[in-house]
Amino acid sequence: MVKQKLDPKILSKLKKIYPERKEGSIRARLSQFSSKNGYTLGASAELMAKQKNKTVYGSLSDEDKKCLRNTEIKVIKVNGYGKNGVIRSGRVMIRNKFINFKDKYPEVFYNPLENEINRAYNNPDLPNAVLILSRKLMENLLFNILEKKYPKSRTLWWQESPPRPLDFSVLLNNLVDNKGNFETDEQELIGKFNMLVKPFIKTANQKTHRIMDYLEKRSELKMFKIPEIVQILIKLYNKI
Domain boundaries in the chain? Predict the structure, then answer.
């Protein structure tokens, strides 16, 4: 791992925001937070500044800003008062947005589902909920894609008895089998989606139907590239 360097400008601003702290204390806190949460030092500095309702955002690098892109920051006041009777600092509540595609979905009904996925992701005890809810999101996007592409060929996305959408695996097969009907760039997206989604479907089905089979850690979600898969599906839908 490459050792990070903190921009002197950022450090200087933090020293003004936290005059009661020594430079070594500020550096140690940033290093600890960065190591524990996977943020850059610059992004960690912004979160530290937010505790006093300040910002160092103007001095952040593009990498720092990218690190914060899917992070929702909320400052909560705490019962700590300085000599002048003002709130000494606040506590920063950080919510990481596992997926972030608001206003890009085919229907507004996807937004509550995305919110639920993100809430589950921010609870380290709920990785399986994230997996199963993400499966629901992908399945519905795939249904919308086939419905939009083949409005008159309902059998590719709908079964009559009982009346309901086709299963995820059937929808996937129908998309891949009819890839030739799509434009060249759309075919590339379908190929990439098919490559990424197969291991996801296998695992998601196992976790859904086998009571003894489940994810143990939130970090295991990274291997499934869920945000990338969702992005491909949204992009494909919008191209049709």
Answer: 8-96, 110-239
Structure-token pair, residue 184: 């060249």
CA distance 189 to 236: 7
Indicate the range of 82-91, 103-112, 113-122, 151-160 predicted with least confidence.
82-91
How many Å from the N-terminal Cα to the C-terminal Cα in the chain?
A: 42
Q: Which residue has the tokens 């506590």?
A: 91
**Model confidence band, residue 210 (pLDDT cutoffs 50, 70, 90):** low
pLDDT digits (tens, 9 = 90+) for 97-136: 899 998 899 998 999 999 999 989 988 889 999 999 999 9
Amino acid at 188: E
Residues paired with residue 164 on neighbouring β-strands, in sequence order: 159
Q: Are 172 and 197 in contact (CB under 8 A)?
A: yes
- What six digits make up the tokens of 138? 């992908």
Q: For the chain, what percentages of helix, strand and coil (3-state, to nearest 5) are there? A: 60, 10, 30
**Model confidence pTM above 0.85:** no
Average pLDDT over residues 8-34: 91
Q: Which of 99, 123, 128, 125 is nearest to 205 (CA)?
A: 128
Q: Say how far apart CA 232 and CA 200 lie, in whole Å.
A: 14
Q: How far is 46 from 10, CA to CA, in rounded Å?
A: 9
Q: Count of H helices and E strands in the chain?
A: 9, 4
Task: Report how far apart, in Å, the C-alpha atoms of 18 and of each of 21, 48, 81, 175, 219 are.
Answer: 6, 10, 14, 57, 33
